[in-house]
Amino acid sequence: MKPKTIVIKDRIKEDTISKKEGHFFDESHFDTIIKEDCDVYILDDNKEQKLLLSFRKNVIKPSLCCKAYNALEKEAQKKHNNRGSASGLLNTKKLPKYVKKTTSKSKFRSYYIGSDGKAKKDHISNYVKSGIIGYFDRYDRNVFNKSNGKKTSKKSIPNIPCRTTKFTKEQVSKWKETLPLIKRANTLFKNLAPKRHSMQLKRAKKTPNFQIEKTAFSTITINYNYRTGTHKDRGDLEEGFGNLIVLEKSKCMPGNDAYEGGYLGFPQYKVAVDVRNGDFLAMDVHQWHCNTKITPKVKGRKNYGRLSLVCYLRKNMIKCVN
Hints:
Elements: E1 4-8, H1 14-17, E2 32-34, E3 38-43, E4 49-56, H2 62-76, E5 99-103, E6 111-114, E7 130-136, E8 163-164, H3 166-170, H4 172-192, H5 194-204, E9 219-224, E10 242-248, H6 249-252, E11 259-261, E12 264-266, E13 271-273, E14 280-283, E15 290-291, E16 294-296, E17 306-312
Helix pairs in contact: 2-4, 4-5
């Protein structure tokens, strides 16, 4: 059956929606929630159509999903404080325990004084279960000199020191168990958005040391029960696409609780997608997007899990050509 096609115009103007960066939108905000195969196009002021998203149901084998879930569950639950507006408006209750006091606070980030009483040079945002695997085009700000336990000076690190992430480097067997799912995502991306995929793959091939298994991806963001605030992705290739897969704990570990919500929404267009286990979503992550609230299907239950993967290419990898 041919997928449904929707052509939409913005429902909220750019100067208005941009003021909602970091804010959450509930399900009631969205006029359309997509749950079946669908392609959505944006109609701009020149009446030209641009692909916003391409969604397909049940196109990934459950075995691939569960193999990746088991490999990533522990890593995905680690908290990080560098997601900026995607982690929502800054809330001091959501900051790490080692933050004694915030200083120079903005809407999404703040410098701070640590538990040792010293002012820190790194800024932080809300503490959320979101991290990266694969390769990255920035230095690791948590790098330490193993000989004396002191942080390596930023001056000694190149401007764009592309690197292998800690998980990929140290959890080799688990990384390998995730690769079949990532390769499947690459194939689906190619099938649904061939022009975008072709441009992204061509760019990825220029840095083979930071290309995931000959795919169009360098990096995977993994999130666990994480509701994102309204944001646009930055740092990835503008001509490319983000590719979303959701893994459900209740599907891979029977006896655990199911969840509701977690729709991926584009609030400017009032359209959202219910991405579930086995589904695939290719999307323009340079449009404003966010997630709706994630709640247990049975009220009061706590043992539920939504693990999402976003596959993409970091644009500055090109600066690390050998």
